TrEMBL record:
Transmembrane segments: none annotated. InterPro entries: ARM-like (IPR011989), ARM-type_fold (IPR016024), CRM1_repeat (IPR041123), Exp1_repeat_2 (IPR041235), Exportin-1/Importin-b-like (IPR013598), XPO1/5 (IPR045065), XPO1_C_dom (IPR014877), XPO1_repeat_3 (IPR040485). Keywords: mRNA transport, Nucleus, Protein transport, Transport. The keyword Flavoprotein does not apply. Pfam families: CRM1_C (PF08767), CRM1_repeat (PF18777), CRM1_repeat_2 (PF18784), CRM1_repeat_3 (PF18787), Xpo1 (PF08389). Belongs to the exportin family. One of its GO terms (cellular component) is cytoplasm. This is Exportin-1. It comes from Trichechus manatus latirostris. GO terms for biological process: mRNA transport; protein export from nucleus; ribosomal large subunit export from nucleus; ribosomal small subunit export from nucleus.
Length: 940
């Protein structure tokens, strides 16, 4: 490995004969040859697989070109070994090395030599070499070029002939895999990779040749057999191909017909020819997807390794991703022939009911599959199908005895109904039955069932909210009234956090009521229970304030406020009627608990904040702030908020924050202030000095000692600064100079931060600040004179710091803006009072000296060229950014550092764009997105 690192620096310039030296030496002894094969393999990996970011792009290209130009000698050596050597380890090492070469060598070496036939005839059927040979063939199969069609056909037919001898078509591959040794299991995995790669790249080439139809069907038969293997990694490989095939066939003609192609005789007039070809295979793939469907995220009731039915606590991201891919595949397959999908599912459901296939696993996979195709059928078909499914499942729930059985069936009913909001919106009777069933499950104490009932209820409430506040046909009142009349009995068995979810769900319904008077009555009735407990605590506290030191009481207050927070989140601005009712009492409780906490800390030191009672008190304070900020962010009357809600809040919260010891200051105070400033803008400018006085300096002193302590205060402090900077900038100009200097210092502190979110916020604040200052004629020039050079120096210090590469785009934007100010003469005051020469020349010298003192190894010419570019490119941000990046590569190369992170942002952007493209594509196919991922306005 060390030799390879040296080669990357020395070859080809200082050791031009390296390739011929190593090839020559290899012919002298077999053991040396085997060793040299490993060196060539490592060199190939370093240059072609891992070079990006390790060496400059120019150098990487030079190494790749050198390797390609001298490859004939290496290839002759490999060929010589493969044809003549009897030394098995050497042959194996040569095949391994060849495998690394295949993704970059000139294609002639693959397709215009005997390489393919040698691999297939000489090595594929030898147990010791079959795995590496199949990997080589897979690598070749992945090449997509049109001029070698015949060679690809040969590769496919010869490999299939060998395969049928090694692994006859009637082999039970699932069984063979589970009984096989490691080497045999690897072969099955490599086989899945080969078939998947070849069929994805060249399947259409084989389809077109009638004489190869049978071979194609045999390959698909192998794919089906391998897909049944009980090994998730192999299944994922097969799934990738089935997904690709189904999506491709769907996109060729996206509109599904209403008749089933499979059942309408062999030559169905509507079916495109490619679809016709794959019909029998696709039916088997449907059965496979239904039988093996992975668990969706929403399902919380699972069977553990001991066979017990329990609640799942850890989300299994691997399983969720597998579910998403299987779901997508099954949706495409359903579009291709939904009658066949329905037939498979209905038969499997009957077998659950009649007991022939009854098991938890079978019922689960079937129901997860049924839930996964929501939106992929025509509405009428969906209705007919679902009515059958839900009736059968409700019947099964009655028929089966035992808590575990009931829990599994309940979780499946809840999952399915949660996936079909379109059906529920169109069928009120069913919606009502389903919701009543959920209320029943809310009393079922089996692990996970209540959680799932509440989660499903909130999903349905969000998607069908309007239906609950209208009087439906055959009803005497809206269903919301029935819920509110019985709320006590519905939630009596739920845990506090489940009650909070329930309240949020009902809140969505109330939020859908458009008549204000009716809505206010609903809110009063809705909050009746929590308000009764609240009123009784407040009455007791009025008589004896020590009740607010009682652990049970404080816990109750926390829970009531959490209920209010969730209710407010769902109801929005109209929640003002409830908030107004408890507002002043709530702020008094806040003050009182705050005094209790401070007294406890004074008496017992800061460690007391870890005690349960003190933590409960802090929860009440936090939830109070959450409730206020949550409502303000949803409010729609800024003046009313500024006049009625803000003054008592500032009075209760600010002085308390300032007086507390750091450990007892709530970070939510800062985020609440930020939300208020963002929402109220100019309406609150006059209060900013008061807010700053209370929170600014004391918070800054908590976070300017290091980059780690108080992370929440840190993030929220800068969010507040950003809000004031964006919405109340005149307030910055009104504060005393010493305080403004602190503001600027804290912004510089922010963008030097190691927490990326803080650094990004700091850069955004600085950029907005510079733009805001430029608008203020009077203040601008003295600002530039005092701070311009200092800001420039600090920005360059982060630009050249490797841990800040992610901010390169923002660095470029800020620097370009600053250099542009200088160049266009926007700064009229001299930046160098001692020598008031032209500002542009001064800044050129200033930056050049700054860089030379930081990086003495740079040539004067390099620095001069860089500084000139800063002025000439400041109108073109992308070019300016590339200019910065080239300079950074020069600095890092000298220091021998890794330069890969300089492209971090591009990689992130590319990933984000790929995600967006994928999402657009998914939006265009009905059923691909989970119904709960679809924006509200598209649902109705």
């Amino acid at each position: 490995m060390i030799l390879v690192q040296i080669l990357k620096q020395e070859w080809p310039k200082h050791w031009p004969t390296f390739i011929s030296d190593i090839v020559g030496a290899s012919r002298t002894s077999e053991s040396l040859c085997q060793n040299n094969m490993v060196i060539l393999k490592l060199l190939s990996e370093e240059v072609f697989d891992f070079s990006s970011g390790q060496i400059t792009q120019v150098k990487a290209k030079h190494l790749k070109d050198s390797m390609c130009n001298e490859f004939s000698q290496i290839f002759q050596l490999c060929q010589f070994v493969m044809e003549n050597s009897q030394n098995a380890p050497l042959v194996h090492a040569t095949l391994e090395t060849l495998l690394r070469f295949l993704n970059w060598i000139p294609l002639g070496y693959i397709f215009e030599t005997k390489l393919i036939s040698t691999l297939i005839y000489k090595f594929l059927n030898v147990p010791m070499f079959r795995n590496v040979s199949l990997k080589c063939l897979t690598e070749i199969a992945g090449v997509s070029v049109s001029q070698y069609e015949e060679q690809f056909v040969t590769l496919f037919t010869l490999t299939m002939m060998q395969l049928k001898q090694m692994l006859p078509l009637n082999t039970n591959i699932r069984l063979a895999y589970s009984n096989g040794k490691d080497d045999e299991q690897n072969f099955i995995q490599n086989l899945s990779l080969f078939l998947c790669t070849f069929l994805k790249e060249h399947g259409q080439l084989i389809e077109k040749r009638l004489n190869l139809r049978e071979t194609l069907m045999e390959a698909l038969h192998y794919m089906l057999l391998v897909s049944e293997v009980e090994e998730t990694e192999i299944f994922k490989i097969c799934l990738e191909y089935w997904n690709h095939l189904a999506a491709e066939l769907y996109r060729e003609s996206p509109f599904s017909t209403s008749a089933s192609p499979l059942l309408s005789g062999s030559q169905h007039f509507d079916v495109p020819p490619r679809r016709q070809l794959y019909l029998p295979v696709l039916s088997k793939v449907r059965l496979l997807m239904v039988s093996r469907m992975a668990k969706p995220e929403e399902v919380l009731v699972v069977e553990n390794d001991q066979g017990e039915v329990v609640r799942e606590f850890m989300k299994d991201t691997d399983s969720i991703n597998l579910y998403k891919n299987m779901r997508e595949t099954l949706v495409y397959l359903t579009h291709l022939d939904y009658v066949d999908t329905e037939r498979i599912m209905t038969e499997k459901l009957h077998n659950q009911v009649n007991g022939t296939e009854w098991s938890w696993k079978n019922l689960n996979t079937l129901c997860w599959a049924i839930g996964s195709i929501s939106g992929a059928m025509h509405e009428e078909d969906e209705k007919r199908f679902l009515v059958t499914v839900i009736k059968d499942l409700l019947g099964l729930c009655e028929q089966k005895r035992g808590k575990d059985n009931k829990a599994i069936i309940a979780s499946n009913i809840m999952y399915i109904v949660g996936q079909y909001p379109r059906f529920l919106r169109a069928h009120w009777k069913f919606l009502k039955t389903v919701v009543n069933k959920l209320f029943e499950f809310m009393h079922e104490t089996h692990d996970g069932v209540q959680d799932m009932a509440c989660d499903t209820f909130i999903k349905i409430a969000q998607k069908c909210r309007r239906h609950f506040v209208q009087v439906q046909v055959g009803e005497v009142m809206p269903f919301i009234d029935e819920i509110l009349n019985n709320i006590n009995t519905i939630i009596c068995d739920l845990q506090p956090q489940q009650v909070h979810t329930f309240y949020e769900a009902v809140g969505y319904m109330i939020g859908a009521q458009t008549d204000q008077t009716v809505q206010e009555h609903l809110i009063e009735k809705y909050m009746l229970l929590p308000n009764q407990v609240w009123d009784s605590i407040i009455q007791q506290a009025t008589k004896n304030v020590d009740i607010l030191k009682d652990p049970e009481t404080v816990k109750q207050l926390g829970s009531i406020l959490k209920t209010n927070v969730r209710a407010c989140k769902a109801v929005g601005h109209p929640f003002v009627i409830q908030l107004g009712r408890i507002y002043l009492d709530m702020l008094n409780v806040y003050k009182c608990l705050s005094e209790n906490i401070s007294a406890a800390i004074q008496a017992n030191g800061e460690m007391v904040t870890k005690q349960p009672l003190i933590r409960s008190m802090r929860t009440v304070k936090r939830e109070t702030l959450k409730l206020i900020s949550g409502w303000v962010s949803r409010s729609n009357d800024p003046q009313m908020v500024a006049e009625n809600f803000v003054p008592p809040l500032l009075d209760a919260v600010l002085i308390d924050y300032q007086r507390n010891v750091p450990a007892a200051r709530e970070p939510e105070v800062l985020s609440t202030m930020a939300i208020i400033v963002n929402k109220l803008g100019g309406h609150i400018t006059a209060e900013i000095p008061q807010i700053f006085d209370a929170v600014f300096e004391c918070t800054l002193n908590m976070i300017n000692k290091d980059f780690e302590e108080y992370p929440e205060h840190r993030t929220n402090f800068f969010l507040l600064l950003q809000a004031v900077n964006s919405h109340c900038f005149p307030a910055f100009l009104a504060i005393p100079p010493a305080q403004f200097k602190l503001v600027l210092d804290s912004i510089i502190w922010a963008f030097k931060h190691t927490m990326r979110n803080v650094a990004d916020t700091g850069l955004q604040i600085l950029f907005t600040l510079l733009q805001n200052v430029a608008q203020e004629e009077a203040a601008a020039q003295s600002f530039y004179q005092t701070y311009f050079c200092e800001i420039l120096q600090h920005i360059f210090s982060v630009v050249t710091d490797t841990s800040h590469t992610a901010g390169l785009t923002m660095h470029a934007s800020i620097l370009a803006y600053m250099f542009n100010l200088v160049e266009e003469g926007k700064i009229s005051t001299p930046l160098n009072p001692g020598n008031p020469l032209n500002n542009q020349m001064f800044i050129q010298e200033y930056v050049a000296n700054l860089l030379k003192s930081a990086f003495p190894h740079l040539q004067d010419a390099q620095v001069k060229l860089f500084v000139t570019g800063l002025f000439s490119l400041n109108q073109d941000i992308p070019a300016f950014k590339e200019h910065l990046r080239d300079f950074l590569v020069q600095i890092k190369e000298f220091a021998g550092e890794d330069t890969s992170d300089l492209f971090l942002e591009e990689r992130e952007t590319a990933l984000r764009q790929a995600q967006e493209e994928k999402h657009k594509l998914q939006m265009s196919v009905p059923g691909i997105l989970n119904p709960h991922e679809i924006p509200e306005e598209m649902c109705d």
